[in-house]
C-alpha cells in the first residue's frame, strides 16, 4: 500500500532551528505512517520536474544542532511574492499551475512552508490556488504578526549578546565607543533584546527615530560619571529623526538594509570627540547552532504543522501564543509587520536600566 505523502520546504533567509523543524516534521509524520518529501531550495524545488529529496528518519538523524537547512533555501526566484517592505508582487499563475502539477504527480497531499512574511504571502497564494498549505513562521527578525515569537530569533539574540560581551572588554580597555550594527529589517527586536542582554548603553531601533545630540549627551553623561567607554547597538533599519533608512547594493545589485552603523560611529566621533569603532555583525546572526529555545520551538512547530495537516486545517500558520503552540489563518499573519511597541514594557525596562534610545 502506498503511504500518504506530504511535502516540506524552507524559504527565505535561513536561520538556526530550521533543521529542528524538519526533524520534527519527519518524526511526527512517520508516526502517522506518512512519507515526507523535502523540496530543495525553497519554492524553486516545486518547479517541473520537481527537485526534492526523501526526508526520513536516517536522513534527519543528528541534524537538530546544525544551523542552516539541509534542504536549502532562497529568498529570490519564481515564487517571490514580496520584495522589501510594502513592495508586493504576485506569483505568476503559470508558475503556480506548474507547482500544482508537480505536487499532483508526486502525490503530495499537503505542503508545509517554513518561512517569513514573504514566504507566507506566497503560501497564501498557493492555498488560494488549491494547494493544501500549512505555514511555519521563521525569521531571526521576529517581525511576523500573529505569533508572539518565531524560531531563529533567540539564536540571533544570543549571537548579539556574545558579540557585545566581547566588545565590552575591548571598549573598556581603550576607553572607546563601540557601535554594533545588527539585523532585523524594519523591526528593532534583535537590537532591543540583544542590547539589553549584552548590557548596551544606547540602543537605536527603527521604531524610535534618534538624534545625534541625544546620543552624544548620553555618552558624555557616562563620561561625567567616570565611565569612559560606551556600547551602542544600532538596528540596520534605524534612522535619525528627519533622516533616511540606509541601504546599499549587494553583488547582485539588490538593495539591502545596512550601513547605518558606520554613519552612527562617524557622527558619535564628531559629536563627542571620542574614538569610535563600528562592527557589523551581519550573517553571523543567521548561522551556527540553534539555542535550546529554538531547538524546542522548532521541534514543536514541526510537530504542530503535521498535526494541522492531519486535522485538515489547511491555510493555517503555526503560531506561538502565551507559551502554547496554536494556529491562525495565514491571511491573518501576512502583510502586517510586528514592530516593537515604543511604550511597551521592554522599552520601558531598558529605559529603567539607563539605556538611551537616542530620543
Ligand atoms: O530577514 C532576515 C534577514 O537576515 C534580515 O535581518 C536582513 O536584512 C536580511 O535577511 C538579509 O538578507 P540577505 O541574506 O539576502 O542579505
Notes on the structure:
The chain is an alpha/beta fold and 359 residues long. It folds into 2 domains: 5-151 and 290-333, Rossmann fold, CATH 3.40.50.450; 155-286, 3-Layer(aba) Sandwich (Rossmann fold). 36% of the residues lie in helices and 18% in strands. It is built from 11 helices and 13 strands. The strands form 3 sheets. Strands 3-2-1-4-5-12-13 form a 7-stranded mixed sheet, with helices on both faces. It is elongated and about 75 Å long. The termini are far apart. The model has no long low-confidence stretch (mean pLDDT 95). Bound molecules: 6-O-phosphono-beta-D-fructofuranose. 6-O-phosphono-beta-D-fructofuranose (F6P) is lined by residues 13, 75, 116, 139-141, 183-185, 236, 256-257, 286.
Bound molecules: 6-O-phosphono-beta-D-fructofuranose
Point out poorly predicted stretches: none
In round numbers, the mean pLDDT is 95
Strand coverage percent: 15-25%
Alpha-beta classification = alpha/beta
CATH class of the largest domain: Alpha Beta
Could you state the order of secondary-structure elements as H and E?
EHEEHHEHEHEHEHEEEHEHEEHH
CATH architecture of the largest domain: 3-Layer(aba) Sandwich
- Count of DSSP-assigned helices: 11
- Largest sheet data: 7 strands, mixed
Shape: elongated
At the third CATH level, what is the topology name of the largest domain?
Answer: Rossmann fold
Features:
single chain, 359 residues, alpha/beta, Rossmann fold, 2 domains, 7-stranded mixed β-sheet, 4-stranded parallel β-sheet, 11 helices, 36% helix, 18% strand, elongated, binds 6-O-phosphono-beta-D-fructofuranose
Amino acid at each position: 500500500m502506498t503511504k500518504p505523502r506530504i511535502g516540506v520546504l524552507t524559504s527565505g533567509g535561513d536561520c538556526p532551528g530550521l533543521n529542528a523543524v524538519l526533524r520534527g516534521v519527519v518524526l511526527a509524520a512517520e508516526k502517522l505512517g506518512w512519507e515526507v518529501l523535502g523540496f530543495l531550495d525553497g519554492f524553486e524545488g516545486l518547479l517541473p520536474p520537481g527537485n526534492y529529496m526523501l526526508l526520513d528518519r536516517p536522513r534527519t538523524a543528528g541534524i537538530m544542532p546544525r544551523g542552516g537547512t539541509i534542504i536549502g533555501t532562497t529568498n529570490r526566484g519564481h515564487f517571490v511574492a514580496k520584495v522589501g517592505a510594502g513592495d508586493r508582487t504576485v506569483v505568476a499563475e503559470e508558475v503556480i499551475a506548474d507547482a500544482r502539477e508537480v505536487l499532483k504527480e508526486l502525490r503530495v497531499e499537503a505542503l508545509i512552508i517554513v518561512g517569513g512574511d514573504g514566504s507566507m504571502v506566497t503560501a497564501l497564494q498557493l492555498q488560494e490556488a488549491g494547494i493544501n498549505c500549512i505555514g511555519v513562521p521563521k525569521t531571526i527578525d521576529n517581525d511576523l504578526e500573529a505569533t508572539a515569537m518565531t524560531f531563529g530569533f533567540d539564536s540571533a539574540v544570543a549571537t548579539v549578546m556574545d558579540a557585545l560581551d566581547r566588545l565590552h572588554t575591548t571598549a573598556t580597555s581603550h576607553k572607546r565607543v563601540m557601535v554594533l550594527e545588527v539585523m532585523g529589517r524594519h523591526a528593532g527586536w534583535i537590537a532591543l533584546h540583544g542590547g539589553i542582554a549584552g548590557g548596551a548603553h544606547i540602543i537605536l531601533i527603527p521604531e524610535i527615530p534618534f538624534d545625534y545630540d541625544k546620543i552624544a549627551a548620553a555618552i558624555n553623561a557616562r563620561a561625567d560619571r567616570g565611565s569612559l567607554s560606551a556600547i551602542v547597538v544600532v538596528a540596520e533599519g534605524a534612522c535619525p529623526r528627519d533622516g533616511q533608512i540606509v541601504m546599499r547594493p549587494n553583488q547582485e545589485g539588490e538593495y539591502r538594509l545596512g550601513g547605518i552603523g558606520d554613519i552612527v560611529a562617524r557622527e558619535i566621533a564628531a559629536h563627542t570627540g571620542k574614538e569610535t569603532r563600528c562592527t557589523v555583525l551581519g550573517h553571523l546572526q543567521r548561522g551556527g547552532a540553534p539555542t535550546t529555545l529554538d531547538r524546542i520551538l522548532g521541534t514543536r512547530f514541526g510537530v504542530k504543522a503535521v498535526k494541522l495537516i492531519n486535522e485538515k486545517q489547511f491555510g493555517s500558520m503555526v503560531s506561538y501564543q502565551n507559551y502554547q503552540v496554536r494556529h491562525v489563518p495565514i491571511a491573518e499573519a501576512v502583510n502586517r509587520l510586528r514592530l516593537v511597541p515604543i511604550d511597551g514594557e521592554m522599552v520601558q525596562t531598558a529605559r529603567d536600566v539607563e539605556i538611551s534610545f537616542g530620543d
